[in-house]
Prior knowledge:
By secondary structure, the protein is an alpha/beta fold. It is built from 16 helices and 13 strands. The protein has helices spanning about 10-30, 45-50, 70-90, 105-115, 130-135, 165, 170-180, 200-210, 210-215, 245-255, 265-270, 285-290, 295-300, 310-320, 325-335, 345-355; strands at about 5, 35-40, 55, 95-100, 120-125, 140-145, 155, 190-195, 220-225, 240, 255-260, 275-280, 300-305. The strands form two sheets. It has a seven-stranded parallel beta sheet, sandwiched between helices. Strands 10-9-8-11-12-13 form a six-stranded parallel beta sheet, sandwiched between helices. The longest helix is centred in the first third of the chain and has 23 residues, at about 70-90. The radius of gyration is 21 Å and the shape is elongated. The two termini are about 15 Å apart.
Amino acid sequence: xxxxxxxxxxxxxxxxxxxxxxxxxxxxxxxxxxxxxxxxxxxxxxxxxxxxxxxxxxxxxxxxxxxxxxxxxxxxxxxxxxxxxxxxxxxxxxxxxxxxxxxxxxxxxxxxxxxxxxxxxxxxxxxxxxxxxxxxxxxxxxxxxxxxxxxxxxxxxxxxxxxxxxxxxxxxxxxxxxxxxxxxxxxxxxxxxxxxxxxxxxxxxxxxxxxxxxxxxxxxxxxxxxxxxxxxxxxxxxxxxxxxxxxxxxxxxxxxxxxxxxxxxxxxxxxxxxxxxxxxxxxxxxxxxxxxxxxxxxxxxxxxxxxxxxxxxxxxxxxxxxxxxxxxxxxxxxxxxxxxxxxxxxxxxxxxxxxxx
Length: 357
């Protein structure tokens, strides 16, 4: 019996691939134990127990960005976190630590190294985070979602996808998806999403251009995010949804997308052959722009900087693009050419390799 400790969290980009790997382990290894290391503040605090896994909480200890009181407290707090994880690894007889990035991954990697347990890493972003860059110095088993990710010992495995996405038959599910969202079968569907919390610029621009999109013969499924502040235009064929817990059906319905360029979003759209306009999140370390680079190079998407994503772009360039059905079909095929559907299986192979070498 193998005991796995999966470490990661904070954002969907870390939690979703973690859960995809956990689900696959549980489905193929009935006697395995899957433990998840996370924080009380991240998405994992809700999603991991809801999926039936034991969540072991450790304090969130962010790296200090400037010299202040928090920086003085960092080292003893961080060392305490490493000691705690090492104790967990020993007491729970953990056989392998698999990290997905985020605050908890760094103490997990160092604790595993201290105890002598194999380390496996998955880096979801094309621009790797600090935790995984450090962890990659401690292991040769590093899987990446995007080819060319600049991290030591990188092996391209793709993104571990949720089972409902990995096994989605879009054509067979389309009728169910259209009915679920009350969409018209005779109109093509433009999916708009800025992530679970939404994206103010993206939301505002799309609503401002709503009449033009509907007049172009499309219908819009616009997922605004649970905290978004946006006014419903109340137009026929423009469907505003605050939150969607059936993204598999939203993707089954979509003929084209307008979205941020988070790693999971890019990976899911490409795996399913859905072309998109990508509007990268303009804050942070710029990883979203790099995430979209492979599909842009293949011709399966268009990148628009956040500052340039204005109603005039939608009313002009996007509406023109949506009217070119042949180009849209070619873009969908191009997106699929860089998509990976077996990222979970490839990641499991990497973990088993670490266990046997």
